[in-house]
Specification:
This protein is mostly beta strands. 10% of the residues lie in helices and 42% in strands. It contains 1 helix and 14 strands, in the order αββββββββββββββ. Strands 1, 2, 3, 5, 6, 7, 8, 10, 11 and 14 form a 10-stranded mixed sheet that branches. A two-stranded antiparallel sheet has the order 4-9. The protein has a two-stranded antiparallel ribbon with strand order 12-13. A hairpin with an 8-residue loop joins strand 2 and strand 3. The chain starts with 14 loop residues before the first helix and ends with a strand. About 3% of the residues have low confidence.
């Protein structure tokens, strides 16, 4: 007769449940990092050449271009991504194109997904340079973001922030304010091809 077979070591029955548990934990962490099941706020897509109502302004984005802008006082030129737009002021009071005005309501989306205000905004009205928008007088504006020496994006995403007229958080005076936080809704988001 043959001797009986040696006893088998006990099977490890906890490997499969432990693997499933670890996978569930990793899935929960990834879901939490991505924001959970909450729906991402929808930003209205807009097309170049069509007017977007921001509340304070009506803006028609015409296109984006990579340009070298001449420096002043003998400084070398700098590269910018320039977004050209036509701006009409909807309010009754003159507005700046720079700080406190149009610049506050225009932003570009970075690769990280945050919004960045333009470095500079220039304007032309009736063939002359201007730094403001008058009621009823359209202005051709250029919002400009500095580009590095090697930057050559194929597409550029621009957001037009909503403006609201109302009192401030700490004062009772009414004035126009543009949404500034990344979660604030946009009046329009445009993804533009970048011309060279």
């Amino acid at each position: 007769m043959f001797p009986p077979p040696p006893p088998q070591p006990p099977r490890r029955r906890f490997v499969l449940p432990a693997g499933i548990g670890a996978g569930a934990v990793l899935l929960a962490v990834a879901l939490w990092a991505a924001g959970g099941f909450a729906e991402t706020p929808k930003q209205p897509a807009a097309a170049a050449g069509r007017p977007v109502n921001q509340g304070r302004y009506q803006v028609t984005v015409q296109g984006a271009r990579l340009e070298t802008v001449k420096g002043v006082a003998g400084r070398p030129g700098e590269r910018y991504i320039v977004v050209r737009m036509r701006v009409v002021l909807k309010g009754d009071e003159t507005s700046s194109l720079t700080y406190g005005g149009l610049r506050e309501g225009v932003a570009a989306r970075t690769r990280a997904g945050t919004w960045l205000s333009p470095d500079e905004v220039r304007g032309f009205a009736a063939g002359a340079k201007t730094g403001s928008v008058q009621p009823g007088l359209p202005v051709d504006a250029a919002a400009m973001w500095r580009a590095g020496p090697a930057d050559a994006p194929q597409r550029f995403t621009v957001g037009l922030r909503k403006w609201e007229y109302g009192p401030g958080f700490t004062d009772a005076s009414y004035q126009w304010r543009a949404g500034k936080e990344d979660g604030d809704a946009m009046a329009g988001v445009l993804t533009l091809p970048v011309a060279r």
